[in-house]
Design brief:
Blueprint lengths: L1 H14 L2 H11 L3 E2 H5 L6 H14 L2 E6 L2 E6 L3 H34 L16
Antiparallel strand pairs: 1-3, 2-3
Helix pairs in contact: 1-4, 1-5, 2-4
Length: 127
């Protein structure tokens, strides 16, 4: 369990940075070289490589070097743990909201008067 939380921490930490999220979004379209990934950013290649290293450490990205070109690809399996965590959190919060709604409905019911006089019955007065 502790190992899973540590992995989850690394995934969330990696995705906390907008540059790394942009790299991940680009890799959703397919593999890319480091040079292609660097094009939209105004940063030196060593700085971009630090971002890629963080993504690799988290397990979100895999890279391999062929000659002088390093190619990166997305490793979507790393997101399975985050997806599971989100589903667990959603279930917890939905259950809490359901209980809160039931409580509010109970309070409304308790505050309503026991019997309201009917407005449909008219008093007959003298003719």
């Amino acid at each position: 369990m502790a190992n899973q939380l540590s992995r989850l921490d690394h995934v969330f930490a990696a995705l906390a940075d907008p540059t790394r999220r942009a790299i991940v979004m680009r890799l959703c379209a397919g593999e890319a070289s480091v040079g292609e990934l660097a094009d939209p950013f105004d940063m030196a290649l060593p700085s971009l490589m630090k971002h890629i290293h963080v993504l690799e450490t988290s397990g979100l990205v895999q890279s391999e070097k062929s000659g002088r070109v390093r190619t990166c690809r997305l490793s979507p399996d790393a997101l399975v743990g985050a997806e599971d965590w989100f589903q667990q959190q959603r279930a917890i919060w939905e259950a809490r909201l359901d209980r809160f709604e039931a409580y509010v409905m109970q309070l409304k019911k308790e505050r309503e008067p026991a019997a309201k006089p009917s407005r449909t019955s008219k008093r007959k007065g003298p003719k």
